[in-house]
Amino acid sequence: MDGFPVKMSEAVCLGASLTLSGICYYLYRKNRTTANKLDDAPHFTIDGKLKDILKVTPGACLQYAVIEGAVQPVAEPLTSPFQKEFVGVLQKFMLREHRLVWNGLSRTWTDSERVLHQRVNAVPFVLVGSNDTAVRVLCPLQASGVHMETTHEKFHQVNYGLGDIIGQYLSGEKLKGQLETEEMLKVGTTLTGVGELILDTDGILILRPPSNGSKYFLSITDFDTLLGEQESTAVWWKVLAITSALVGAAVILLVGRRFYQQLKVRWEREKERREFERLQAENPRARALVTGPEALQDGEEELLENACVICLTQPRNCILLDCGHVCCCHSCYQALPQRRCPICRQSISRVVPIYHV
Ligand SMILES: [Zn+2]
Ligand SMILES: [Zn+2]
After folding, report:
1. Has residue 2 got a pLDDT over 70?
2. FRET pair for 3, CA 20 to 30 Å: which of 64, 66, 273, 302?
3. Domain count, the chain
4. How far does the centroid of ligand 2 lie from the alpha carbon of residue 41, in Å?
5. pLDDT in tens, 236-255
6. 122 with 92: CB under 8 angstroms?
7. What pTM was computed for the model?
């Protein structure tokens, strides 16, 4: 009863929910800021006027701008080894191994994936607008957003003999096969780019990762879709942050309620003890029973006969109601873990001092 009544599970639950809520809130703020910056970024069309705009801009630099243009390679493009007609400027090969692993807890086979090999090829490219104006795109691999499409996908299934199958059941692991994929940013694709737009000393327009810490985007979707995705991600983090904060608040309420109930029991016992002492004070004979040494004067035999069934030393000095048992002293009654008569287990509604006349 002493101390603050927090169970270990509640402390863990509270800590986890508050930490989770903090992380989700941080991610929400981050996504919200990105969405706001995207929303505020000015849009420019790639044409002859863009150079003129940048010439009059301080530092010939627009810190965060949105442009849209068709992908064109600066030199020789990359060709897909799987489909000769696919040419692009970014190419990503991946070989992933798929396995079925036996899960002893859920007693099912679960799919697990592992990247065996990954290779990215890139060639310099520009975004072309009208009048053959082009913007050179730097560091495309640092950009967020979906900027490649799957151009090849093949699953190589593994065939097994009977011996292999028995071995797999014994080891709890089954190799399903390997998935081979190729993704490409194809030549001619319309790409939305959001980043720092500059005019370099050679008079070339360049789009590069922003130096002010904003997020760099290259996306094959249009700008509104890109903004919508950012906003919905922010909303999801917000919902998660609120949910986990609510869980934390519920735990605090639960612990607080229990603490209040324990305090209430303590107050009631204290009130009862005072009431008992008052009643005793009104009756000198009852006081004699409590104080002990005076009771001894009546003879030790009487005291033993009359001893409290719990401590066996103090005289019985209270009546438990409603059952009416006279079986213990008041200090033992107060120490009872539950308000139940130690003889008949009936619940105790009141306790009064006993008077001998
Ligand atoms: Zn006792
Ligand atoms: Zn009883």
Report:
1. no
2. 273
3. 2
4. 81
5. 999 999 999 999 999 999 99
6. no
7. 0.67
